[in-house]
Recover the amino acids of this structure.
């Protein structure tokens, strides 16, 4: 049951981070914008005059162990949703949807370009700050009609939206998509730091200055994967003649700031919270444990003795990173301190198995054994008591998001929302 959901989450990079959410969610919201690049509130969701007082803000819980029985459908894919306060930002095939979960208002933000003939699903928006203003940044596939004998032009358009007013600050095409898109094309904002958004446009990694609206640098299209953005650095792995190597590039100019080690086969890098990276070697079992390096300078800070090469690592937004392996070989899990890189616990042991893990938040790990939801203490790995309705895929103080189990992986399974109650 869990494996299909976890496989989808891993392949679609679901780990969007945790932020506060509200309780209610408007379904089926639409808008018909006449002006390109505009943003309008859904008339059906606009508040009506009332003599009653506005509802109290939802209560937030810490160390969440309970959820309500009632659930509401999230109007978008989990892997394309970012939660920020009581707002859900959702990337659709041809627009950006903003749902205020306290007022039940929604806003649909459209790019300047038209929807292409084939609209692949691009990645979730990223929230960041630009010149003191909090903004949401997203990319969408678009098409500009040709004139005369000229064909339509396909491109990737970036939208930068005020996170408070939900108004578009600017939008512009940042990459040419040539003859058009296929359903398998991927594009996403991978992260943002120091006013620069790092974008995978489907053909290259590029850095866009959110103040000047210009691409300040981009990669040469060689095989590489961005693993973290922060501390003024873009950390990425690059395939070279003798294996893969981890580099840190400066966000501002793309110049190499550091390199960690020599090219290695079967290199795997995971982000450990806001400022650390975990490096392991091996397809299943780590050859020589792991190395924890700083994101800012690439220097090694710890050598944890771990055994599993993780599929994913989840930061609990507090002090702990939980890593787990379940897609290949012997399932394994371990937890590291997010700052020191110290090993806190590992599974399996002689008398305990490794349950499939979904996520972690504020000291609690959410997992399952068969069809039974479980919770573990993130710092000790010991079982915790509680009665979960199902295994959440993302948790914060206000809600849990639960993605359905589906056997059809052609489309993303639906996701529901349950309010936290304790």
């Amino acid at each position: 049951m869990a494996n299909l959901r976890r496989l989808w989450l891993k392949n679609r990079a679901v780990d969007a981070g945790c932020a506060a959410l509200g309780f209610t969610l408007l379904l089926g919201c639409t808008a018909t914008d006449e002006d390109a690049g505009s943003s309008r509130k859904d008339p059906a969701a606009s508040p009506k005059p009332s003599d009653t007082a506005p509802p109290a803000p939802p209560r937030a819980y810490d160390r969440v162990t309970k959820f309500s029985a009632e659930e509401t459908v999230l109007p978008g894919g989990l892997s394309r949703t970012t939660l920020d306060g009581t707002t859900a930002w959702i990337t659709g095939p041809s627009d950006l949807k903003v749902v205020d979960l306290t007022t039940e208002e929604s806003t649909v933000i459209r790019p300047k370009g038209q929807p292409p003939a084939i609209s692949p699903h691009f990645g979730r928006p990223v929230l960041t700050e630009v010149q003191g203003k909090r903004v949401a940044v997203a990319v969408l596939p678009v098409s500009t009609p040709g004139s005369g004998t000229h064909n339509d032009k396909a491109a990737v358009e970036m939208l930068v939206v005020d996170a408070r007013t939900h108004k578009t600050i600017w939008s512009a095409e940042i990459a040419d998509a040539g003859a058009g898109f296929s359903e398998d094309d991927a594009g996403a904002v991978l992260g943002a730091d120091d006013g620069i958004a790092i974008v995978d446009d489907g053909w290259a990694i590029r850095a866009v200055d959110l103040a000047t609206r210009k691409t300040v640098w981009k990669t040469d299209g060689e095989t590489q994967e961005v693993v973290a953005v922060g501390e003024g650095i873009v950390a990425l792995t690059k395939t070279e003649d003798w294996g893969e190597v981890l580099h840190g590039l400066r966000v501002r100019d793309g110049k190499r700031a550091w390199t960690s080690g020599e090219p290695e086969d079967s290199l795997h890098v995971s982000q450990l919270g806001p400022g650390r990276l975990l490096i392991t070697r091996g397809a299943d079992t780590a050859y020589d444990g792991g190395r924890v390096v700083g994101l800012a300078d690439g220097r090694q800070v710890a050598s944890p003795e771990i055994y599993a090469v993780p599929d994913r690592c989840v930061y609990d937004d507090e002090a702990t990173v939980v890593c787990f392996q379940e897609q290949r070989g012997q399932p394994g899990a371990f937890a590291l301190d997010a700052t020191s890189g110290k090993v806190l616990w590992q599974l399996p042991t002689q008398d305990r198995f490794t349950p499939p893990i979904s996520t972690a938040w504020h000291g609690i790990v959410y997992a399952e054994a068969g069809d039974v939801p479980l919770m573990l203490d993130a710092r000790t790995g010991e079982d915790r008591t509680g009665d979960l309705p199902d295994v959440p895929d993302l948790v914060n103080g206000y809600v849990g998001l639960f993605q359905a189990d589906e056997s059809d992986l052609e489309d993303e399974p639906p996701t529901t929302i349950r309010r936290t109650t304790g």
User: Anything to note?
Assistant: The chain has one helix and 33 strands.
